[in-house]
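Sanity check

After download, print the first record. It should look like this:
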Amino acid sequence: MADVLISEFMDEGVAEGLIAEFDVHWDPDLWGKRDELLGQVADARAIVVRNATLVNTELLKAAPHLKLVARLGVGLDNIDLAACTARGVEVCPAIGANAVSVAEYVIATAMILLRGPTYFATPDVAAGAWDRPKFAGATEIAGRTIGVIGFGSIGQVVGEKARGMGMNVIAYDAMLPEDHPAWADARRVGLDDLVEEADVISLHCPKLPETIDLIDKRQFGRMKSGAVLINSARGGIVNEAACADALRSGQIAGAALDTLDVEPITPEAGALFHGIDNLILTPHIAGITKESNRRIAEIAAENVRRVLSGGAA
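Expected structure tokens:
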């Protein structure tokens, strides 16, 4: 059995570095083969995961030698932190490594959504339909207000990029102290005020019991008719049925959902969004670029080296 398990996709060069140093079992699809995963983890001292591998009491019981869960990313809702702590297993996310990638996704997607149908004109233009009025009336991002929900490491980079585009930045974060230096670069507001004031609403908060359905029918009703919503945090924070209703009715101008309540989404669940043309759906990919994938992997690999350098368990 391997000393290190890698149960999801990882930058190949960094993974090969670990393979050269440790006894490593790497299977990007191992997360979906639960019985095999539980067998492989029996002798492992470290496991490297993304957000699909469920690290719970079942896995921890099957891994008596486990010292480290190295997270390729920052979200920890797939990891039972209390159970890991109780068993002396260190959990190390790659904080900040994908912040630029997420922030660029937010800004690019906001610009596309605020432009309305502009970027979807290809079939018309290719067919010879030069209907400029149909695709006119777009909104510039400069001078708009972005409301960042969750002003941690990623939210702060989103704010920085938004300011560079000439946007005003407001933010809501229930956990960030009032005297935190980050508030020098954003106006601190309550959630309801943010939802009412923002032209672009971008989510960067963790998925917790208190944040499930944080953006629900009531909050959609408070938004500007020209507002757009972007969720690159976690599925379940936005009530998807309420979001679909708000898009269909024109209550908001557009939305981008990079994360969904059930991932991968089922065809039945996906039917909720059929026929909505002011919606962008992506497969939980906002934080994944070539550059961020390598940065995340390097942090995970260094944590494996640090924790396992003391010798065998």
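If your output differs, re-run the checksum step. Summary of this record's structure: The chain has a mean pLDDT of 95.
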